[in-house]
Amino acid sequence: xxxxxxxxxxxxxxxxDKSYHDITVDVAAPVEGKANKLWxxxxxxxxxxxxxxxxxxxxxxxxxxxxxxxxxxxGWAWDITNFVWWVGIGHAGTLISAVLLLFRQKWRxxxxxxxxxxxxxxxxxxxLFPVIHMGRVWxxxxxxxxPNQFGTLWTNFNSPLLWDVFAISTYxxxxxxxxxxxxxxxxxxLRDRAVRPFQKKIYSLLSFGWSGRAKDWQRxxxxxxxxxxxxxxxxxxxxxxxxxxxxxxxxxxxHTTIFPPYFVAGAVFSGFAMVNTLLIIMRKVSNLEAYIxxxxxxxxxxxxxxxxxxxxxxxxxxLFIAWYSGVEYEQYAxxxxxxxxxxxxxxxMMSCNVFSPQLxxxxxxxxxxxxxxxxxxxxxIGMWFERFVIIVTSLHRDYLPSSWTMFSPTFVDIGIxxxxxxxxxVLFLLYARTFPVIAQAExxxxxxxxxxKFKKLRDGNHE
Amino acid sequence: xxxxxxxxxxxxxDILLDAVKETRxxxxxxxxxxxxxxxxGLDKAMGLxxxxxxxxxxMYGCVGFAFSIWMMDYMMIQDWxxxxxxxxxxxxxxxxxxxxxIMFEMTVFFAAHLxxxxxYMRSKLWPFKKAENPDPRTTDDMFxxxxxxxxxxxxxxxxxxxxxxxxxxxxxxH
Lengths: 463, 174
Known about the structure:
A: Formate dehydrogenase/DMSO reductase fold, B: alpha+beta
C-alpha cells in the first residue's frame, strides 16, 4: 500500500469504514430509492416559482420590456443584475473541477459533480436574461454571425456584448462536456446496477456504453487534465468579459480597470457560497456525510473568506481611485453610491460581502455547519446587491440632473427573478434524484490514500 | 484462430496491478483490463503506449485560433467594414486588440469540443453504444484481466490462480 501514501497530518476525505462497494451503494442510493415528502415539497415550491417565472416571461414578451421597472435613465437593472449574479454563481463549479484538479486538490472529488451541475444550471438561468431583454426574442439568433438577408450585415466584433455571447456559449458548452465526460463511468455504474429495464435503458443511453477499459481510463484522465487546463483560463475569461460589458463603457462607476479581477473574485466568492448552500442540504438529505465532510465545508469557507477579502480590497481600491483620479464625476458616482439614496443597498453589500466572511477566520465558526449555511445565504444576498449597486447606482444619477431618477422593480421583474431561482432548483432537485451526485469513480481512486479506514491502518503500521 | 480468453477477476487494485506485472513477465498476452476507476500505473504495467489526445487538442486549438482570425478579418475588415465608435476598421492589425477575447474563446471552444469528440470516437463512446465490460461488477468493485488463450488453457488457469484472483472464467471472445 505504499503507493497510496498520504501524510498522516492530512485529515481523511472519506470518513467511516468504507470499501469500494460501499461507495457504489452510497452514491446509487438516492437514485435507486424513492423521493421522500421533503423532496416533493421542495420540488413543488420550486416548480410553482418556475411557472410564475414563465408567466412573467410570456407577459414580458407579449407586451414588451415596458412592463419592467426600467426607465430612460436606468436602462439596465434587475435583468443584468440577475444575469451577472447567476453567471458568478456558475463560476465555482469550474473552479472546483478545473482549478483544483490542476492544483491536485483531492477534496474536490467529493463536491465537483454537484458544483459542475450547479454551474450548468446557473449559466442556463444567466443566459435567459440577455435573451429576454432583447424584447424580440425570436431575433435572438442575430447575436450570432450568421449570413442574413441584409446583404450579410455581420455582428460587431468590437462590442463586449458580443464577446459575452461567445464567452458564455463557450463556457456553457465546454462545462457541459466536461461534466458529461466525468459522468460516463458513474452512469455506467448505475446502468450495471439497474434492475428495472427502463432504468437500465436510460442509463445505458446516458453512459455512452462506457466499459472501463484500461485504455479508456488512460484517455479519460488525459482528457480531464487537458479540459481542466482549458477551462481554467476560460472561467477567468468569462467573468472578465462580463466585467468588460461595464468597464469598456464611459459611465462613472463602471469605467474601471480593476473590474476584471474584481468580478472574477466576486464570482468565485458567490459561487462557493452557493455550493455550500446546496451541499450542506444535500449531504444530509442524501446521506453523503461520509464524502462531503465538515472538512470540505471548512475548506470552502476558507475560499469564501479569501475571495471575500479580495472583493473587499477591490471595493476600497475603487473608492480610493475615485478620489485619487481627481475626476469629479467619478468621485460623485462613488459618493452617491455610499451615501446617496441607495445607501442601504451599499450597506447590505458591504456588510454581507466584506464583513461577514471575515468571521471565517475563527476555526470554530468555519467548522460549524449551521453557521456556514447561514453565511452562504448572506453571501448570496450580498453578491446580488453588489451587482445591483454597481448597475443601478451608477446609472440613476447620470450627467443630466433633470433626468435623475430611481428604479423600482415591478411584479414582472420580481417574477422573472424568482422564476429563475425556481427553475434552478427544479433542475437541481431532478439532478439530485437521477444523477450520480458524487464522482464515485474518482472517489474510489483516492479511497486508499485518503479514506479514514486505510489511513488508520497505514498510520498504525508506521508507529 | 483460437478466440478463447480467460477472465481473471480481482477485488483489489493493488493485487490486480501485481497480477498484471506477473502475467506480463511470464509472457502471457493481456487482451484487456476492465476497472471501475482509473488505477494509477496500470497503463504502464500493461505496456500501453501513452495517449496522444493532448496533442490533438493542441492542433484543434490552433485550428480554432486560425478560424477566428479568418472569420473576424472577413466579417469586420473585408466584407463589410464599419466605423464603430471610431475604432479603426480598415486594417486587421489595428482592429486586432478588440478581437483578442473571441480569438481566445474560439481556441478553447475548438480544442475542448474536438478533443472530446476525438476521445468519444477513439474509445467508441456514443449514445446507444452497448457496453462491453464482461461483468456488471467491473463498474462497482471488481477488476477483470482478460488473458488470451493460446492452447495453454490449463497452464494459464493454474498460473492465474496463483496471482490472487477471486474468480476465473474461460469464455469465447465477444
